[in-house]
Amino acid sequence: MKMPVWFKPWFDRLSSMSLAIVLLVLLALASVIGTILKQNQVQADYLTQFGSLWYNVFLSLGLFDMYHAGWFIGLLGFLMLSLVVCLWRHTPRMIKDMRKRKVIIADKSLQRFHHLKHWKLNKAELTQTIETVRSCLSGWEQKTAEDGGKTYIRADKGRRNKWGYILVHGAILIILVGGWIGSQYGFRGTMTIVEGSTDNTISFVKGTGTGHLKMPFDIRCDDFFIDFYPTGMPKAFRSTLSIIDHGKVVVDHKKIIVNEPLYYKGVRIYQASFGDGGSDIQLKLFHLGTGKIETVKTKVYETWRDPKTGVSLEITNFRPFNIENMANPGEPKEFKDLGPAVEFILRGPGLKPVKVKTFMRPFVMKGQDRGNLMLVSLTGEDSDYEPFSLGLDFSQPTDWKLYRNFVDILKKQKKDNSKTANFAAFKSAMSKVFGNKRPKNFQQIGGRVIQGMSNLSQVPWPFIPVLEDYDQVYYTGLELAQDPGMNTVWVGSAALVIGLCIMFYMPHRKLWLVLEKKGNNVKISLGGMTTRNKLDFEQEFHELLTKIEQGFDSSSSEGSAT
Amino acid sequence: MTAMTATHFSFETINRGLPAFARFCTYLGAIAGITAYAMYGPSGYGDEGLLYFLTPSSFAWIGIGALAGLASGLTTGMTKPSVTEAKVALNLVSWLDGALMMILLAAFWSALEPSQSLITYTDQSNLISGRVIMTMNIVFLSSALLYITYLFAPASIVGNLATATAWIGVYSGGSALLLRWYESYLLSTEIGHAPVSNLYEVFILLFCITTVIYLSLERRYQAKAMGAFVMALVSAGVFFGIWLSARGHADIKPLVPALQSYWMKIHVPMNFVGYGSFAVACGAGMAYLVRDYLEQKGGNARLLAIFPSLDQLDQLAYKAVAIGFPAFTLATILGAAWASEAWGGYWSWDPKETWALIVLLTYGAYLHVRVSHGWKGRSLAWWTVSGFLVTIFCFVGVNMYLSGLHSYGRL
Ligand code: HEM
What's the pTM value of the predicted model, to 2 decimals? Predict the structure, then answer.
């Protein structure tokens, strides 16, 4: 192969081992950055996190979408170039070496071998000795030649070891090419479909924004099913999908689950996630000032605004089960379903925005109704939810009635705050609500109302929202992907693993035996070498020596090791 | 690889020739039997998971397979004695012996299990596997102490005890994991899954794999001094495992849908072959650095006499990486295959994936540095040690500090 003179130094440099090492280390370092700096987040978050100076530095380096940044791709391209040059340079020589095995070896070369042994066999026949030695070398590829009265035997194991090198480095090229094909001609994105509806567009992260792509077919989510473990963890979820291509139903009610995708027209459709698809929510607002009870109908992802007070509820999520571990840390776990709950962010004039989870059912512990519970997070993070007991059981109309009456009577007798007066007020509220016929559990009701008196007075909002009814719909989160480069990647991967095994586990071991008839005796030299895995070769060589010596046993042998 | 083979001549004979070959064929037959049962068994493999294989009909299939294997092994072995010399059979048979012993041990533990009515998901403290794991912790810690003692008091009894305790640790850890597998089904069939689903379980796996890799190197290359370093690493892991269990991470938990896949059983253990070998390479590297330091200081001939030579240690580290690198490459590829089936793409630059790549690049660079001239000995030893730090970050650091798709093992 001829190449221009000016090119030679570049060629050498590109195929040099130092460059390979530098490239590997650089890629590793770049990847570290990519994992520490969260990729593809909202730009505003980066800005607040790093300040405008560093934000701009990072942005211009493309660090927010690093794996697609020019310099990162360039690094991969450089690796490919280097691999090509490397293979170009080494492969022909390696193949030639593997084919041609030099049998005749100069004495001087043999003397330099790390593993070397000489014998002198007295009164031995040459052909007989050769026969013995060759049978000891069964399992080795042998080649014999004669030159200048000497017989040379060359034995090889793992002669094709260099194919390992070719396969490994070729495989990495193939994998990179496969990845490139995928990134150029493939796509991958998510599609969320509410139960019962149809969609055909996927969305995906594109640079620092979001891209959209229309599929050549429609997907309808006929049904979504989810099953939970007793601990509240999702156990399995499954979508029933139909695919509609040009108005025709081509896939009808096919079920897919996680780890078992659906395949249509080169596109894989995966079950990836699920969530609330905009369930109908009915809330009851218990107004603390007026005592009025208002029913509000809204939906998840919608915001309901109270025109009078300006307070708004942004409904963020609904869940039909809310299983919590009620045990203290260290105690055996005690899972309990707190029932359906809706989450919302409450905002209003003069109010600190908070995230709230409110339930439909009261909290019952050890058979006792402890009234309704709310979880309140001051930061908006789920991990910061703190339970807040409302005292009253809002699902029982009498609780609220008694509470209101008690409040009213107390207001009227403003001046007298004594215990007896309070007790009298409570008693008259009781008889106002229940008359003479007190229910059996009136003591419990009373306890809840008194609890409610102290707890509700701490609530800064004009009303207490309680979940009354719901009609749940889910959305199914599908992942759609097409990757024409994937099979290339698998081919490359297989070659990589096979190549590595050849490279590491079939090292090339070479032996040279030189036999020479000297009068009545036969002089034998055995030299061995390997490029890799020297420890094992040492053992193998010694085992071989023992074997050969045993083979010589019949004839008197006189060994002298070097 | 059993503990006793090296010491007793009577054991040596059954590990050679016809006895070994026939045993190997028996194992192959049993494996074929269980595979056939999984594929063509009467009721079909389904949601029962492990329990499907713990039935009389399954044992019958395995037994028939084993007998057929034994018969064919004996006949071929006797008619053609040369096949009994096959390296593959001789090398694999002791591993299969070990696996069988582990299964028998786990079966023995399972007999000690409390009655089914006392086994509850909410309180798993009465399960036997917890006790076996505790034993394993203690045994591994003692093994580390014995190996360290051996450095300063190289009596062969200390050395043999160190090796024996390491083996006992492996068998307790391995059988505890098998038992835990079974226990997960005792809790409930729907909870049951292979014990490779959370950090606590894979830590135990890691101890066992690291120790086994080290022990097989020890046996082949008489490198006992390295044990002090490898077992010290394992001990550090043991303490971490104890911390995890104190934090309540030791409980058997049900699997999230993404992990309910046969890929988990292949991908995860394969990864740990990689991690384990890199740990052993790190042990060899540390031994190298210590020996190098001692030589420079020109002191302590007695200590030096126990250590393998610098060249040997360098080769041992390479040997360990040569096991780990292909295994970890394969594990990463298997992970990519799983990802392409579960997440819709074989590569997502998720932190765990990316760190696996970083680990591969680190050791890839190490291998190239070895081949190229100039860098030798000490810098390579440092490379194996720092490479293992990278590995540790990939293994635990990512779970602690970075979030992503692999967030099943979050701490
Ligand atoms: C991700 C990229 C690469 C990987 C994973 C990789 C992997 C390997 C492995 C595992 C070995 C065997 C080392 C040993 O024998 O212990 C090796 C050897 C080698 N690599 Fe790479 N390699 C990569 C890139 C490169 C590049 C870019 C070059 C050229 C610039 C290169 C040139 C070589 C050479 C010349 C050898 C020695 C072959 C021999 O003499 O047996 N490699 N490589």
Answer: 0.85
